């Protein structure tokens, strides 16, 4: 496989390695990944996370195993096992489906390797395109709000929603970003704050429950979020808390955009109710952990509900910023997404 280098995933000199997103920003640790078990563990523990990145990391590992001489049966099993790690982000299913097709080719080793390479390179191009479309929606001096982490750490390129923010800043639009900390796993507080610092983009970190009063005070001009799966009718799943923002945005008449590549579309899924929502370990809600260790504050027998994602209905979305352009309510309700995948 050729050398492939992204912000948090690389293939170099015969080695797949990933940047540990659970330890950032205070610890920069790269893990070498050589087996399905290792990659599955990295994905399950969110050391590797973000819809596009999960699929790409799994694909690079499968291609690496193919090059190392794994047989077809072992690769088919690897694809199945990696696909089962996280149920909501459809990019993983998209990548694994492409690899299954490659495995059926007569020259299947080359086909698997070139498929993984193309998926990686395609993601860089998709990020660039949607970021440029999205940046056109941003006006000079805008205060933007975002949720979770959708940047270069979560993709092979510059990101989805955070990619838009990056391009708007690069275009000299003098923006400021409100960053939701994003409980329970704090992807906003840990990763988005870190990426914006690295990019020198002015931002202010807030707890998730502070967004409403900021909107009421007129301090949020536009909201950009990513997606883990977009259904045919435009409903979409993203990090839990996204739906709250969409409802608040509607109430305060604030434009609310979802930014995602075509690989996040699942037109076989008719609407948001059909999107499987991952439920995670209660310990993520009863406390918090990271590079600093673990801290638990709730009673150890507390009942916990911990869905990792929620679904935002299409009627709350102002625009779907995709790599092929920006789609409005009218386009999406007349089936524009169906034509795309
Ligand atoms: O659980 P995570 O951290 O993988 O969830 C990530 C998100 O919800 C992102 O918003 C989404 O994957 C889009 S990332 C480009």
From TrEMBL:
One of its GO terms (biological process) is L-methionine salvage from methylthioadenosine. The keyword Isomerase applies. It comes from the Bacteria. It catalyses: 5-(methylsulfanyl)-alpha-D-ribose 1-phosphate = 5-(methylsulfanyl)-D-ribulose 1-phosphate; 5-deoxy-alpha-D-ribose 1-phosphate = 5-deoxy-D-ribulose 1-phosphate. The active site is at 228 (proton donor). The record marks 148 as: Transition state stabilizer. Substrate binds at residues 49-51, 86, 187, 238-239. Keywords: Amino-acid biosynthesis, Isomerase, Methionine biosynthesis. Its EC number is 5.3.1.23. GO terms for molecular function: S-methyl-5-thioribose-1-phosphate isomerase activity. Pathway: Amino-acid biosynthesis; L-methionine biosynthesis via salvage pathway; L-methionine from S-methyl-5-thio-alpha-D-ribose 1-phosphate: step 1/6. Pfam families: IF-2B. Belongs to the EIF-2B alpha/beta/delta subunits family. MtnA subfamily. Catalyzes the interconversion of methylthioribose-1-phosphate (MTR-1-P) into methylthioribulose-1-phosphate (MTRu-1-P). Also catalyzes the interconversion of 5-deoxyribose 1-phosphate and 5-deoxyribulose 1-phosphate. Part of a bifunctional DHAP-shunt salvage pathway for SAM by-products. This is Methylthioribose-1-phosphate isomerase.
């Amino acid at each position: 496989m050729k050398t492939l280098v992204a912000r948090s995933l690389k293939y170099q000199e015969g080695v797949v390695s990933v940047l540990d997103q659970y330890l950032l920003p205070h610890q920069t640790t790269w893990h070498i990944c050589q087996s399905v078990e290792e990659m599955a563990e990295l994905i399950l523990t969110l050391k590797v996370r973000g819809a596009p990145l999960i699929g790409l990391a799994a694909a690079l590992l499968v291609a690496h195993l193919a090059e190392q001489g794994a047989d077809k049966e072992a690769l088919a099993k690897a694809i199945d096992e990696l696909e089962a790690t996280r149920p909501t982000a459809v990019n993983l299913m998209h990548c694994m489906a492409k690899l299954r097709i490659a495995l059926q080719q007569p020259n299947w080793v080359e086909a698997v390797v070139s498929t993984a390479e193309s998926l990686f390179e395609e993601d860089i191009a998709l990020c660039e395109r949607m970021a440029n479309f999205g940046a056109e929606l941003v006006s000079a001096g805008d205060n933007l709000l975002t949720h979770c982490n959708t940047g270069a750490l979560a993709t092979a390129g510059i990101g989805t929603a955070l990619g838009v923010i990056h391009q708007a800043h690069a275009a000299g639009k003098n923006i400021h970003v409100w960053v939701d900390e994003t409980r329970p796993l704090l992807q906003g507080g840990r990763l988005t704050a870190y990426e914006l610092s690295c990019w020198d983009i002015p931002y202010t970190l807030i707890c998730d429950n502070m967004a409403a009063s900021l909107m009421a005070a007129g301090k949020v001009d536009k909201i950009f979020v990513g997606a883990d799966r977009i259904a045919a009718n435009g409903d979409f799943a993203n990090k839990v808390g996204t739906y709250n923002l969409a409802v608040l945005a509607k109430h305060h008449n604030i434009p609310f955009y979802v930014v995602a590549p075509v690989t996040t579309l699942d037109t076989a899924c008719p609407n948001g109710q059909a999107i499987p929502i991952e439920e995670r370990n209660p310990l993520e809600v009863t406390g918090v952990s990271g590079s600093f260790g673990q801290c638990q504050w709730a009673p150890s027998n507390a009942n916990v509900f911990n869905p990792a994602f929620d679904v935002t209905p299409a009627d709350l979305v102002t625009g779907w910023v995709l790599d092929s352009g920006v789609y409005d309510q009218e386009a999406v309700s007349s089936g524009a997404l169906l034509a795309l995948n």
